[in-house]
## 1
Amino acid sequence: MSIKRVNLFTRLNPVFSYIPIINIKTMKTISTAERELYLTLHQLSQCYPIANEWLAQLPRWLANIKDKNRYAHAPAYLSVVERLPIIEDRHNRSVDLNADSITINIDWTESEFKQTQALLKNLMPWRKGPFQIGNQDRTLYIDTEWHSDWKWRRVWPYISNLQNRRVLDVGGGSGYHGWRMANNNEQQGAKTVIIIDPSCLFYHQFMAIRHFVGDTDKNEAGLCRTHYIPVPLEALPVHSQLFDTVFSMGVLYHRMSPFEHLSLLRGQLVKGGELVLETLVVEGDETTVLVPQQRYAKMNNVYFLPSVSALKLWLEKAGFVEVRCVDIDTTSTEEQRATEWMDYQSLADFLDPNDANKTVEGYPAPMRAVMIAKKA
Ligand SMILES: C[S@@+](CC[C@H](N)C(=O)[O-])C[C@H]1O[C@@H](n2cnc3c(N)ncnc32)[C@H](O)[C@@H]1O
C-alpha cells in the first residue's frame, strides 16, 4: 500500500495529515470532494468564525463514515466509487443539473458503460433521483424509486432564487435535490450547497454521481459548489447561522422531537433566511396531529403528522414568520414505485389493496405539504 498525501490539504489543516490516501488516482473522487469541502469551510471561516467549529469536527465526521465498525458496508461502497472509470477529455463530458434527470453526457466505451452499470447496481437501493449518465444507446438511466423531480417541481416555483445563496439541505439522501439547488444556470444556482445526511449508502451514491459531475461544478473561486457531510442535523454546531436557505424535506416526520428539529433548522439560518420544509401532513385543524401507534405505511420510524394548520402553528412557535403552505399533494404510485434500481416494496405495497386512500394500517394515505417560512 503506497501512502501519499495531498499537500495543500494537509498543509492547510495538519489534522488531516493522519488520513492515508491509499492510491491518489483511485481515491480521487472522495479525497477531492473532502478537500473541496475543507477548502470551502476554510474560506467561510475567514468571514464567519463559527465555520472553524465545523472544520474542527470535519476529520472526525469524515473518518466515521469510513469506519467499518459503524457501517459494515462502508468498505464495499467505497470500493465501488474507487473502481468507476476515470473520466478524461476524450469523454467530452457535459453536465446538466437543471434537467428533471441529473444528466451527465459522456462518450464512453461499451466496456466503461457496462462496468459502471454493474458497479452502480452494487449501490442499490437507489431511492432518490433520477440520474442519467452516458450518450445515445450507451445511456445509463438510474430509474430511482422516487421521481424526486416531481417534488422539486412542487418546491422550485415558490422558493427565493438561490443565486448567491448558501444552502443547507438537511436529510438530502442521494443528493439529487442538492444538485438541483446548485443548478448550472448562473442566474439560478446556489453559491454553495451543503447536503447533510447520516446514511452511509446515500453518501456513497452522492460520491458516485460526484465522480461523473467532476469539476464542472465549480464557482468563480474555482471551488466545487456542492458538498456532502455524512452527519445528522444534531451533529452540527447549533447556532451556525451560516445559510441563506435551509431545506428539510421528508425528515420532520422521522423525528421524535419535531420542535427540536425546527429549532435546529432555525439555528442554521441567517436572520431573515428562508426555511423550506416538506413533510407528511393530515387533514384537520390546528389541534389535529396524527401519531401512528406503530407503523405508518409500513415505516417504523414515523412520529408526528400534523395538519397544515398545526404545522403553521408549530413553525410560528419555533420562531418563524411569514409562514405559508405553497403545495399539498397526495403521493401517487407513479411518483413512488419499485424499479429495476430499487426492487424492494414501495408505495403500492404500503396502501390498503381495497382502498388506496388508506395505508395498510388504516391511516390516511401519504399526503405531503411544502411550507415556506422566514427566520424572524
Ligand atoms: C425520506 S428521506 C428524504 C430525502 C430527500 N430530502 C427527499 O425529500 O426526497 C429522509 C432522509 O433524512 C435522513 N435523516 C434522517 N434523520 C436525519 C437527521 N437527524 N438529520 C439529517 N438527516 C436525517 C435519512 O437518512 C434520509 O435520507
Note: Residues 1-12, 14-27 have pLDDT under 50 and may be disordered.
## 2
Amino acid sequence: MTSKSNTSLIQKYNIPGPRYTSYPTVPFWYKEGISIDDWTKSVQRAFSESNEQEGISLYIHMPYCESLCTFCACHKHITKRHSVEDEYIDTVLKEWKLYVDVLDDTPSIREIHLGGGTPTFFSSANLKRMIDGIFEDASRHDIYDFSFEAHPNDTTEEQLQTLFDLGFRRTSFGIQDYDPKVQQAINRIQKYETVERIHTLSRKIGYESISHDIIFGLPHQTKESIIQTIANTVKLRPDRIAYYSYAHVPWIKGVGQRGFDENDLPKDEYKRELYELGKQLFFEAGYVEIGMDHFALPTDKMHKAMVDKRLHRNFMGYTAGKTKLMIGLGMSSISDSWYAFAQNEKRVEDYIARVNEGKLPVFRGHVLSGEDLVVRQHILNLMCNLETSWIKEEMKLENVDEILDRLSEMKDDGLVEIYEDKLVVKESARMFVRNVCMAFDLRLAEAKPEGRIFSMTI
Ligand SMILES: C[S@@+](CC[C@H](N)C(=O)[O-])C[C@H]1O[C@@H](n2cnc3c(N)ncnc32)[C@H](O)[C@@H]1O
Ligand code: SF4
C-alpha cells in the first residue's frame, strides 16, 4: 500500500466501531437483560464443565482513584478518603461468597486480575485481606497467573512486595505520555523518574512480566513528543506495551473529558501516523505486534500465546490464557460464562447496596444465542489471529454470503483475502481488523444504531 492510498483508506474506514472485547458488544445485549436465575444457571454450567481441568478466572474491579485524569474512559470513582477501602473490600468478599454458595465444588482459581480505577489506591493490608478472603473458599490452580494494574504515582514497595508474596507475577503501569504539555492537558503529572523507580523495584522484587500503557491521539501530542515518550518507555524494557488509540467518548464520560479542547487532539491521518511511528519504534527496539494494540518482547508469554494461536480477548483486552468462566467482582465488572454475560451495578453506592441485600449485583446481561456463539468465535479468531474459517460444522453461518458481500470492498481495497472456506486479514491491514469484524457483526447489521455509541475504529 502506498502512503497515498493508505491515507484514503484511513479516511474511508475510520468510522465509529466496537473494540470487540465481547460479542455481542454491550450496546447490543438484550434490552430486557438477564434474570439472576438464568445468570446463575449459566455460571453453574460453565463451572461444572471447566473448573476441574482449566479452572476459573476472577476479575476484581477496584474503582477508586485519588485524582481524575481527564482522558479516562474507565469506570472510576474519585476520592482522597481512604476510609472507603474497608467497606469496599468487605462487599467484594460478600459478593464472592454469593457465587461460592451456588457452586457445587471448590473453585480452582487460575487467573486473577485486579483492574480499575486504581488497585494500588488500596493499602497493602486491605489487598492482602481481600486475596486471603477469596482463598478461604477456593484453591489455587496448578498453573496460575495473577496480575494487577498500578498507578506509578501511588504504588509503594510494600504493595508490590505484598502482592508478590500473594502470588502476583505480572503488573501493568499506566504511563500514557511523558510530555509535560500533554500531561498538563490530561491532568496527569507523572515524572519519568517515578516510573523508573517503581519499574526497577518491581524487577528487583521478581515480577516476571511488566507492562506499560501508552496512548496515542492524546491532546497536544506530536511526532516529536511520541518519539521521546517511546524512547523513555523502551529504555526500561517492559515485557509488554499496550499502545492504545485514545478513545474520545465525551458523550459517555461527559465533562470529565473536557480538560482540553477538541482542536488540541491529533486528527485522523496525523493520529494514524502517530500509531505507525510508534509501531516502527517498537519494532526497532525488538518488540513484536500482538493483536490490535499490544506489543511484546519475544520472550513474553503473550508472544508465545500468539505464535501458538492461544491468544484470547476479553473485557480486559488481550490475554495469554482463557478460561470458560470469568467471574467479575466489584462495581461495574463484567462476568463471562461463555454462554452469557452479566454486568454489575455501575455506581459504587448501588453496587454496595445490592450486595448488602444478599443479591448478586447484576444490572444487565445477555444470554448468547447459538448464532451469537458462532459469530463470537469468528470475531475472536479475527481479533487474535487475523483469520477465520467456516469449514468446520460448528463454525458454519447461514449468512456467510451476506458477510462476504459486506467484505467485497475491503477485498477490492487489498485489505483481506477471501477463499472458499476462510478469510485472511493481510498483515498490512492489521489496523483495519475492527472494520473486518464489523462485517461479521450480525447484531450491528440488524440494529443500525442511531447516534454515536462507539469510538472511531482507527
Ligand atoms: C484502569 S487504567 C490503569 C491503572 C491506573 N488507574 C493508572 O491510571 O495508572 C487502565 C488503562 O486504560 C487506558 N485508558 C483509559 N482511558 C482511555 C481512553 N479514553 N482511551 C484509551 N485508553 C484509555 C489507560 O492507558 C490506562 O492506563
Ligand atoms: S487513568 Fe487511571 S488514575 Fe486516571 S482516572 Fe483513569 S483509572 Fe483513575
Note: The CA atoms of residues 71 and 257 lie 5 Å apart.
